[in-house]
């Protein structure tokens, strides 16, 4: 065989079905493509005007008209942009994948700003054939003396071209919809799609239904006149019978309003943060996210270097703990909507927020619905995450009061961010606060200082110093750190654990309130990363502070052995752990403690649905603590043969359980029956 070289040839009949079917995942995207083409054509003309290549009349107003015709099942996209000559139609339209953008940019190199032109691939126009059997183009170029062009194609593979009759500069594209796509000529459907993709397009878009009846001006006037009483009319006519100015003004007002564009050409994110008022941010949030609740606060991203990125991220208000943490980040490129929540650009934890980000530098794929994944995209994502951390830490430092006010709403989000993003965690770790038993917000170092007896104010000051110390002594051995671990007590359910909370308060020991489901994984991560804290739920153990001074377990051995046996037998719980202690508060009779490790293990089993497995397999289960200083416990110890002892034992056990976790149905029933029984005995 001979050696040969040449260009590969593509047969449009074969490639076309592929473009139609596979290129664009959503059929409605043709709206975006054709409107973008109109916008590009206008952007190009604006450039020419700026460069003095063309002078336009003073009243020239750039616009795109979209006209639906539900009766004829057609759609029209009309722009007054650059238009095309016959040669340009041949080059840019008749050749698939040949974009005029590149040509234009080459021609006006250094003068044209590439970023503002949306089209690049030379394929978008053909998306029209996904929904239309026949498409026509009527175009007149801006260049003087050129003829207008009429182009049409049925099916997209063959075309015809002839001189056209368009007399105004610009391009009109008409789509004759196919049967499956008639929905797009419906006014509401079309508007919905345009709003989705083009709400912030830089050129004004006017929408019209060709079949809608125009409201005649006379009607409007007549109607309102009828509503007014004659007296009122008289009052507005002067002595000579002329209508006064007021009345003239009213007539002026009654005229139907001039049509309004359906998009906002200057979205808030394009403005400088200093020029935007608070109300404007809120209004933008309401319109874009249809959220009636006000956002807590927002971050306005505005950068030109090293990449062009603008946007606004809102922290939404969560009303209840059960509100789903689900946000929407809308991604735009040059004010054209790309998609919601693109995970390559938006760090996962930020998807809990609501916002809009416009990044013209995004390496979009052909369909513009997804990204070409590369290092650049990762940098954008990191930048966004850094900006959010900067804003939050700034708030902590400068307006801590506000930070605390928002904390309950923003903390699940921040904690999720710390769990998901190591860099975010590093930046945020010193600005995590916790609500304590008094309802105040403290950092961990502040908590520890207060626990050691310092006042809250002094603690806040010295916490900073400790941070510095910690940094210098980072070469400490792991063993040393282990020894120095600070215990941080916490509450997961204020009602359930109220007995323990009261005991803590009486002893002046503080605890943190950690009620959200994200708190458990969060503190586990904290323990691993910080190494100097050990979290312990307040019902995990009885600390020495609650015990009588000079307390000795040895001295209580007899009580311990006897009561253990008695309770095990009465409750029919062979393995029940019983511990007799002398607690300062003699009112407390019985309590349950469950070691932190066992409880976390049990929680994990519940989370992963590992029911049916024996929780005991991961270590000891609950311990029943009996207070040897309590009268009832003493009575049981001294009167083990009393007929009431079984009743007391069961009741003490249930009461202890109750202040630890909800009773199971069966246990609850017997608790109620037994309580009634006890009252009956008392009544005798
Ligand atoms: N309304 C229009 N006015 C003027 N020129 C147009 C118009 N529509 C299309 N063109 C020309 O046809 C070319 C091809 O358009 P097409 O939509 O297929 O691709 P594109 O916009 O360049 O790129 P992409 O596929 O990324 O959208 C454009 O680059 C432009 O030069």
Please describe the topology of this protein:
Elements: H1 12-23, H2 29-50, E1 64-69, E2 74-79, H3 86-93, H4 100-107, E3 132-140, E4 149-154, E5 158-163, E6 170-177, H5 187-198, E7 205-209, H6 217-227, H7 230-235, H8 245-254, H9 278-289, E8 297-303, E9 309-315, E10 328-333, E11 336-340, E12 354-358, H10 375-398, H11 400-420, H12 422-428, E13 434-436, E14 441-442, H13 444-451, H14 456-472, H15 478-483, E15 486-491, H16 498-506, E16 512-513, H17 519-530, E17 533-537, H18 557-571, E18 577-581, E19 590-593, H19 596-607, E20 623-627, H20 631-638, H21 645-658, H22 665-683
Parallel strand pairs: 1-7, 10-12, 15-16, 15-17, 18-20
Antiparallel strand pairs: 1-2, 2-6, 3-4, 3-6, 4-5, 8-9, 9-12, 10-11, 13-14, 13-16, 19-20
Helix pairs in contact: 2-5, 10-11, 10-12, 11-12, 11-17, 13-14, 21-22
Bound molecules: adenosine-5'-triphosphate.
